[in-house]
Write a structure and sequence with these properties.
The structure is a homodimer of 637-residue chains. Helix content of chain A is 27%, strand content 24%. In chain A, strands 12-11-10-13-15-14 form a six-stranded mixed β-sheet, sandwiched between helices. In chain A, strands 26-25-16-17-18-27 form a six-stranded mixed β-sheet, sandwiched between helices. A five-stranded mixed β-sheet of chain A has the order 2-1-5-3-4.
């Protein structure tokens, strides 16, 4: 077959391909291109400009471009076959620049006399009980004719004196060189011990005292971004953090697109490999930077939503997508990390935090560990806003949860100029009279709007009565920033001469409608759940909010648009990346991990898709802040 | 490097090598040559005749050959480097022809009211309880919104209705395709379930009802021979049997030589691979012959002595050899058979029967299952005669055991014309006046003498007063069959014109002395053990004898030379290959396997090497039948 060279600008990344689509060529080159729909030609996000060579936008793509753009060589990468040597430019809005990824949770402040809070582990290494994988130094008596038990019995006899397991399993690899290890070390060894099914599992034996060299990984396997923390298991210290985009994005922006890719074409493996390879890349970067041998990493705890956990473990996720929404498993077996290709110590283990149901995953269970919900007599609430909004309410006696299909609007997707909370995203908006003040991430020229910017925009537009409480523009007033184009009325946040892209950054009436639906779904889910347990919002002692809004999220404005309930803002806390924090807590505390498993079994999942009260609440919520203004007594537009 | 072609006659097996020894070339060619000492040039067994090409017997080998033999091109294979193309003849006594391998145990007849005897399982499939690995057919209700538990929870919910496990583990491989398996099969599947640590372990899920296709392997991993039985796990039927020599013989005839090979040269791997490859060869032959898919083999139970079990599992056996005789393990973890390279279903498991100590292995524990010792209120005794003599005495309340270094004399090694019980071996000897009547295995020309023939010979020589009760020849009489050569006085059992080798087959005074030491060690061990528990021989209800004597073993003659105690011969039974039978019982009955594990923990091993009473008994036993003739009241020479 003929081979073609494709060069991607501005980074001059070259790749040689034998046909295939331009999007596939980008994937092969390691160039990440936005492709929300997974290459179906539907989202119009994978815009590229052909600078050199013969490649025409095909008819499927025509609708996405103006005549001028077509003349300038704009194409959709997924709909363009490579049949020539090409030089290709990547427009700014198609480029996924390094986000400001949230790599840590915010410590939750509460104290509870007489009881060690699990989440304290993450903040206070002194409260460390026992990490998920322990290293124990043993000085064994040498065998004699009077004491001639087998080598492994000699090791477990000593372990019994130091640990609390009733019995021990041993890996074959460890058993195979046990005799030499013991004798070469003069019977002074360090045992690496995990817990499996209530028994100790001897993973590894090292010569001498190596208890200082025991590291673990906490991993947030997010749909959009992935974060890895390298943690010292003896001190609890976070040694380093790495994060990047989930490279599965090339197969679709959200879990549904990715499931469609994996299931309709029977191609689970690329998605599985993408996440594992990315973990290995992040781990390699971390260990190289910190000068740590990957063999000293004995344990991984991963938190992800149910679909991501399935992709990670290589489980078939296909029935998650369709009613009745069945996952392969919600509690995942402990496996060797190497069994799915993660490059740590070959005897090191992987624990994936348990899910509750298809749309309440291990990331939410991790969130509970991070905010102490389930370990506290106070009734608190965790709201995680991503593609879905997951909501948990409960205390140490009961927990209910649900998931609402809110759409990814607050993560910046599904709106015209929406983007993730990365460089150039408008994160703050204030409108005073006709004067618009915006702040962008990294003080860069505006490229789009992230979640906090969208919340600000809607609030400011409504407060200035530029839109009504129904989210519609008041076109009767004369406002130079309001324009009407083919896609309807929109408000200019940044004029074309101010932006990176050379196009004005706007928020459209359709965007606002989508955002109102999204906030309405989350609020309606929260209302349904509180009603289900017979509580008012005022009875929630705490609301913890996590998600990819961006760090500038304004709680008062989120209340004002009706995303959050109208309670004392002091009782609402944005806790950032609660999944990574929960994963680390589980890594550092065996009892926390076990608590996560039992929490996941305790949680009652309310399936909203068939729940009539939710439908009614949703309709009532499609207003700013709500059709029932008694629910928002402090809000006055 | 130069390459040389070596052709072995009579089978015209060719091999190409780049130097190395002739013994190594034979190994590479798959030609099995006797090499008791493991290639150290000490035993003189690996005699080959150079027929063509340039290869001289080197100085180390000179002592083993007459001048004529050297002229005829005889060399020791291990001491001869290949530096030319060679045609090589294998003398008959160096060739290991197919033995009459004992591939089954003899059913033990006893009944015990109100209690199912474990050993019955081997004879009566109707008594089958539950095999070590079960296949269970499940018809699952399809998921609905009301019954939307995860796939794995749906499977285990149904398993709970059919099996008695408290909970279930699942292999990653099984979990990874669970979702598709369930849906493709329309929720009708067969689960393969093993037991691990008291929990069920789901190994495999197959579409439809495959419960009829569940096979297991019982393997006797003997030092000398290996036997594999293919067993239908649902019916208990033995579908086929294969056996051959343990190819580890090329690294040494006995476990000590093999440990020296493995440990002094740090070459465990060839020994591990040899036994695994041989198992695969036997399994391939069996499955091909019977038309059975290896994927339908879900389970292997192996019985071997402690050293062989270590070689099989790939454990370092080196400290077994030297005081204080420490094995790596006596209870072996359940592993996947594929983890050590055994080709059955990749999710199939391997259980190695537990050992008691370095010199009382899983073969003996298997023997207990076969003869019911430990499961029976009668006090019985198992004597297994191989390189070591292992002796067990006990009932269902207590068990003691020991191992005596008897040497391999009764297996045919260590005596001038000794050989295993294979074609051409003299297995029966009767001497009436000067007339000697011999019978050989396969009615072939005599090639040597096997265990039963050696026992007969000594008994007949003593009965005819050709030797005294001290085992020394009476050289004062005129007997044409008694000759005196460089290696001392010897008795001709077959004249050179009668034999396959063209040399007379004799038994020497040194042989007799070695055999008296061997029988003395076994008897002394038995006496020490009965004294230890305060019993007389008469209080032993049964003595079960196993070992490689050959099927013609005469119990009365074995008593008469003082190998076995002088009790009613009706109470002594030769039970053949009790290891393979015990392995099969464990394969067919989970409770029998668990009983084997608990028996191995119950057994008290008496270490004879430091046990003074044994030394005294041994000295007293070096006489025919014994220095204390009150112990053998019925024997009169």
């Amino acid at each position: 077959m003929a081979k073609y060279k494709v060069i991607f600008l501005p980074d001059k990344v070259e790749v040689e391909v034998e046909g295939g689509s331009l999007l596939e060529a980008a994937g092969k080159a390691g160039v990440y291109i936005d492709s929300e729909c997974g290459g179906q030609g539907l989202c119009g996000k994978c815009r590229l400009q052909i600078l050199n060579g013969n490649a025409k936008a095909d008819k499927h793509a025509i609708g996405f471009f103006s005549g001028e753009e077509i003349r300038d060589g704009y194409v959709l990468a997924c709909q363009t076959a490579v049949t020539d040597n090409l030089k290709v430019g990547i427009p700014a809005q198609s480029r996924l620049e390094m986000e400001e990824i949230v790599t840590e949770g915010t410590p939750v402040e509460y104290s509870q006399p007489g009881k060690v809070s699990l989440h304290k582990v993450a903040q206070d290494p002194a409260s460390l009980s026992e990490p998920l994988v322990n290293k124990v130094y043993l000085e064994l008596p040498k065998p004699t004719m009077e004491d001639n038990i087998s080598d492994i019995d000699r090791v477990t006899r000593e372990l019994n004196r130091q640990l609390n397991f009733s019995s021990y399993d041993i890996s074959l690899a460890c058993l195979q060189n046990l005799a030499d290890k013991l004798r070469q070390s003069d019977w002074k060894v360090t045992a690496t011990v995990a817990r499996q099914d209530g028994k100790g599992r001897l993973l590894q034996l090292e010569e001498g005292n190596t208890t200082d060299g025991n590291y673990g990984l906490a991993i947030d396997v997010g749909t959009t971004t992935m974060v890895v923390q390298l943690v010292h298991l003896k001190t609890g210290e976070v040694i380093g953090v790495e994060g990047n985009h989930n490279p599965q994005a090339r197969y679709g922006e959200d879990v549904i697109s990715r499931m469609i890719f994996a299931c309709t074409r029977n191609r689970l493996n690329p998605l599985h490999k993408a996440v594992v390879t990315n973990i290995n890349d992040l781990v390699e970067a971390l260990t190289r930077e910190k000068g740590i041998d990957t063999n000293n990493i004995s344990c991984v705890v991963a938190a992800g939503n149910t679909t991501m956990s399935h992709f990670l473990m290589g489980l078939i996720p296909c029935s998650i997508r369709l009613e009745p929404y069945i996952p392969t498993a919600t509690i995942y077996p402990q496996i060797l990390a190497k069994d799915i290709g993660i490059n740590i110590n070959p005897d090191g283990i992987l624990e994936v935090l348990p899910s509750v149901a298809s749309y309440v995953g291990g990331d939410i269970v991790a969130g509970l560990l991070a905010c102490g919900l389930g370990n506290n007599p106070e009734v608190s609430c965790l709201i995680d806003v991503g593609t879905n909004g997951e909501i948990v309410i409960g205390n140490d006696e009961w927990i209910v949860c649900c998931s609402a299909s809110a759409g990814p609007a607050f993560e910046g997707a599904g709106t015209k100029w929406g983007m993730r909370a990365s460089k150039g995203a408008i994160e703050k908006v204030v409108i005073e009279n006709s004067r618009v003040t915006i702040e962008t991430i990294g003080k860069a020229k505006p490229r789009g709007i992230c979640g906090s910017g969208l919340i600000d925009s809607i609030y400011e537009l409504a407060r200035n009565k530029i839109i009504g409480q129904d989210g519609k523009f008041d076109l009767s007033t004369d406002n130079e920033r309001i324009i009407v184009k083919e896609d309807g009325p929109q408000y200019i946040l940044a004029f074309l001469e101010e932006t990176e892209t050379g196009e004005a950054v706007t928020i459209t009436e359709i965007d606002i409608s989508n955002l109102i639906k999204a906030k309405g779904a989350i609020f309606a889910a929260l209302k349904s759940l509180t009603d289900y347990v017979g509580l008012s919002f005022g009875q929630l002692d705490k609301i913890y909010l996590s998600g990819g809004f961006g760090s500038s999220l304004s709680i008062p404005k989120a209340i004002a648009i009706g995303l959050l309930p109208d309670i004392d803002t002091e009782r609402i806390q944005y806790i950032g990346n609660s999944a990574i924090m929960g994963a680390r807590i589980a890594l550092l505390s065996r009892s926390a991990f076990e608590s996560a498993v039992s929490l996941s079994k305790t949680m009652t999942n309310i399936e909203l898709s068939n729940y009539l009260p939710f439908m009614n609440e949703f309709i009532a919520s499609l207003f700013l802040p709500h059709t029932d203004d008694r629910l928002f007594p402090s809000i006055h537009y």
